[in-house]
Amino acid sequence: MKIYLGSDHGGFELKEVIEKYLIEEGYEVEDLGTHSEDSVDYPDFGIKVGEAVVKEEDSIGIVFCGTGIGISIAANKVKGVRCALCSNVFSAEMAKKH
Q1: Which CATH number is 61's domain given?
Q2: pLDDT tens track of the chain, all 98 residues?
Q3: pTM of the model as a whole
Q4: Which residues are catalytic?
Q5: Residue span of the structural domain in which 68 resides
Q6: Tally of structural domains, the chain
């Protein structure tokens, strides 16, 4: 399973930490940006991750921004994507099951 990551500048630091962790755990990861803390528009990266997930069967995406709200709304604009804002393990597990 491939995991696509994306963030704006507000989620950049957390994305970098999560990317390192996932790679250490043996996951195949592709970072679709942003690649710095320079100001960018979150919809660009939410949509980019959403489109990648739809194109590749058996993949998932994780997106990050300051709150997670904006980028998850943007990802949900992509037909076939169901992006949920998760702040704990339980909500992440339940989102995946539904």
Answers
A1: 3.40.1400.10
A2: 999 999 999 999 999 999 999 999 999 999 999 999 999 999 999 999 999 999 999 999 999 999 999 999 999 999 999 999 999 999 999 999 98
A3: 0.95
A4: 98
A5: 2-97
A6: 1
